[in-house]
Design a protein that fits this description.
The structure is a homopentamer. With about 100 residues, chain A is mainly beta. Chain A has 1 helix and 8 strands, in the order E-E-E-E-E-E-E-E-H. Chain A starts with a strand and ends with a helix. Chains in contact: A-B, A-D, B-C, C-E, D-E. The interface between A and B is medium-sized, with 31 and 31 residues.
C-alpha cells in the first residue's frame, strides 16, 4: 500500500455498467514523510474518505477485494483512513493535529 | 486508475484469435492536472471512447473485468469517459468547456 | 499494452519444464511515436512475430491468457503484430512503408 | 521480492472491515547493497517484524498468499526477516552485526 | 520477463511457514545489452541457478506458476538460465564464452 491525500473528484457519466455507484477520488501520492509527490492515482472509495484526508490505498488485484469493487474493472481502492503516521521515531502526520 | 487522452488508433490484422473484435486505442497518460506526460498505454475500448476524449483506464488484471475483455490477453481497458476533473478546488478539465 | 520492436532472441536450455516449446523474443519498448526507448521486455511469442516487426505486448497475468502461455510462469506475451499506428493524426508507423 | 527496513507504524481506525486485526508497517525500500532509497511501501506484517529489522516483502497478488491476508485488499506483505544478505561476495547485512 | 544476473544469497530463518524450503537468490537486473543496472530483485529459484549465471525471471502472479512457488507469497521466480542472448544481430551474452 502507499499513502495518498484526497485532492479531487471526478465525474464520469459514461462508463462500464458495473462501475455504476462506485465513487472515484483523485489521490496525490505521498512520500514516506507524508509530503506530496508528483504521482497520483484515481481510486475507488470503499470507506467514505473525505477531501484532504490522508489515506492508504491498494493497487492491482487487491483493489477488487472489497464488496464494493468485487469483479469490477477497478485497479485502485482506498482501504483505510490514516490517523497517525510515525516514521523514524517522529510523528509525520497526525490527523487531529494536521488534518 | 489513471487519466489518459485518446490520441491514436492502431491496426493489427495478425493477432491472438481471442482479441478478434476488440478495439484498441492509444492513450497519452495525463498527470493529475490533466496535462499530457510522455507516458502512454494502448488499451481496449469497452465503452466507445472517441478521439480527443479524456478517459479513465485500468491496468493489470482489472482490465479483464469487462464482458468484452474477459479471459483475453489484455492488460489495459478504458472504463469511463471523464466529464469533469476537479483537483485542489479547481476544475482542471471540463468536457463541455475543453473537450 | 505497450508497443515493442522485436530485436532479439534468447536460448535457454535449462528452464522450468512447463516452458518447454515456448519461444521467447527480446522486445525493445517503443514510445508513443514508435521510437525506441531504453526499456525492454522478454516476451513469449503467441503469434509468430518476426525480427524487426512492431508488436503489441501485454504484461502481468494477461500474459497467461493465451493457449500457449496458460498456467505457465510467463509475465509477458506478444499478442498482436502492428500494421499501422496513427497518433495525433500522423501515421507514425506503417508496416508496408517502414517495416 | 524486494528488501526493506521497518521504519515506522501507522494507525488507521477507519478502514475496510476485512482489514481488522492486520498490522501495517512502514518499510523503506533498500537497494541491493542494503542501503536505503527514497522508495517505501506500507505492508501487512505476517510474521511479527520489529522496528529497524531488514525484511523481504512481496507485492501484488502474492501479498494475499498468507493466512492473514487472504482475500483482503492488501497489496504488500512482509514474508521474511533477513538474517544475512551477501552480494558480490560481501556480507552487505548481518543482523547479528548490524541489526 | 527480464534478464538478471545471480549476484547474491539471502538467509532468513524467520519467515512465512509456506516459504520453508524455497531458495531465494539476489538478482541484479540487466539491460537489453546484458549490462548490469542499478535495479535488483530477490527471486525464488525454481531451477537450480548458480552464482554469476544470467537468468530470465518472471514477476507478479506469474511467479506462482511453478510447483515450487504455487500458493506462496512469492512475487519473483527464476524460470530459465540463459545460454545465449542475441540482440540487433550481435551475441550480447554467450554462457560458454562469457559465463
Amino acid at each position: 500500500m502507499l499513502l495518498g491525500r484526497v485532492v479531487g473528484t471526478l465525474v464520469a457519466s459514461r462508463k462500464e455498467p458495473s462501475l455504476e455507484g462506485l465513487k472515484f477520488l483523485v489521490l496525490r501520492q505521498l512520500d514516506v514523510e507524508g509530503k506530496k509527490t508528483s504521482g497520483y492515482r484515481v481510486a475507488a472509495d470503499a470507506i467514505g474518505a473525505g477531501m484532504g484526508e490522508v489515506v492508504l490505498y491498494a493497487t492491482g488485484s487487491a483493489a477488487r477485494q472489497t464488496e464494493m469493487t468485487d469483479r469490477r474493472p477497478c485497479d485502485g481502492v482506498i482501504m483505510a483512513i490514516v490517523d497517525t503516521l510515525e516514521v523514524d521515531g517522529d510523528v509525520k502526520y497526525d490527523k487531529a493535529r494536521d488534518g
